[in-house]
Structures are given as structure tokens and as C-alpha cells.
Amino acid sequence: MLALLHTSPVHVPVFDALRDAAHPGLELRHHVDAGLLERARRDGPEAVTASVAAALTRAVAEGARAVLCTCSTIGGVAEAAAAEVGVPVLRVDRPMAAAAVAVGPRVLVLAALESTLEPTAALIKEEARRADRPVEVRTRLVEGAWSRFEAGDGEGYLRRIAEAADSVTGADVIVLAQASMAPARESTHVRVPVLASPAPGLAAGAEAARLGHSGPAVRTAG
Fold first, then answer.
1. φ, ψ for residue 170 (rounded to 5)?
2. Phi, psi at residue 91, to the nearest 5°?
């Protein structure tokens, strides 16, 4: 069983649909705690370290063979807690970051939340070091997008993100920093690849749950 740690309930149907399409038979168990993101935005990701570890411990107690954290803001905190819980703990955006580095050195990160920009940029630079590739990471906050998300205007949220992606110049690849941004890819017209985290992240989580350890394809921070 693969447990997923979310900070918004909107992710539950997204990952269920991805599971049904690409990983039939994979058992998912969703843990949603919106307060983790609220506190991390207010006080910094390290402020939720104990709460994240507790959530991971509960997931393992319920039978999880691996845990996938779908929140980019607290993904690094979750990964760091893997040694405490005894199963692989993955951040959903790591496979996306590795893919971005493979495309080209000029990476543009789009995020709807400012708290996501620095962790995502740091992750891409980490993956570039692992791959021994040069990288230049730029970040951009999609102004006004998150307020639409919070208001329940999903269509407006995704439209803002797609418009931001289409305005990007001077990049080899665009990274959508948050899992909730993924559907915006369908509306973009930009000529460079636009990468999102849910599908590759779930694939890595499924493999980790199958193996019961991180394996060569599911890397953790070290």
C-alpha cells in the first residue's frame, strides 16, 4: 500500500485517477492535513517537522510500504523523516526535477505559492548536481493564482497558470512547482516542455511501495 500525504483534498481524486489509468491494483491511502501547509507558509517548513513525522508514522502503522508527499512546500521535510519511519518517503516533485535537468540548463519554475519557489529551485539544483549537469534556475510567482484556488475557482486558477507559462521566454523547460497546477499543461501553447509532478511522482511512489525500499530509481535526499 502507498500512502499519500496531501495538504489539500483536491489532490485525492487527481491521484486516484492517475492510479486507475497507470497503476491499476495499487492500493492508495490518502492523508489530508491542510494545516501543515498553513503553518509552513507562516513559520517556515521546519516548523512542521514533528507534525509531518507524526503523520508519516501513522501511515506506516496503517500498513504503508512507502509514503508520497504531494506538497512541494513540505516535501523536503517529509523526505528527511524517512529514517525515522522505516519506509521510503518520497517527494512528488523529485522525478519532475530530474526530468527538467535532463531537458536543458535553463529551467523556469512557476508556482502559485511563494513558499514553494525556494524548495523547488533547491531541488532542481540538487538533481543537477546528482546528474553533473549545469543548470540555471529562475523562479516566477503566478500573481493572483492562489487566491482563485482558495476561492474554489479552479478554472480561473489554471487559466492564470497557463497564461504565465505561455509568456515565458529564454527557458529550455518550464516546471509547474505544485501538483495542483498540473492540469494547466493542457491549455499551454508554449514551445518548450512544461513538466508537472503528479504522474512521475506517483510512478516513483508505486515502485517504492512495490519494492519496499527506495531502489535505484527512487532517490532520497542525502
1. 70, 30
2. -100, 135
Q: Kindly state the average pLDDT of the residues 206-219.
A: 66
Label residue 2 exposed, middle or buried (CB < 10 Å: 0-12, 13-18, 19+). Answer: buried
Cβ atoms of residues 85 and 52 within 8 Å: no
Name the pairing type of β-strands 194-195 and 89-91.
unpaired
For helices 198-211 and 11-22, the axis angle rounded to 10 degrees is 70
Taking only the tens place, the pLDDT of each residue in 134-152 is 999 999 999 999 999 999 9
CA distance 78 to 51: 10
Considering Cα of 49, then 147, then 155, then 173, what sign does the dihedral take?
Answer: negative
pLDDT in tens, 51-74: 999 999 999 999 999 999 999 999
Mean pLDDT rounded to a whole number for the chain:
93
Res. 26 pLDDT band, cuts 50 70 90: very high
The answer to whether 7 and 36 are in contact (CB under 8 A) is yes
Which of 87, 6, 94, 85 is closest to 53 using CA atoms?
85
The H or E element containing residue 164 is helix 154-166
pTM of the model: 0.90
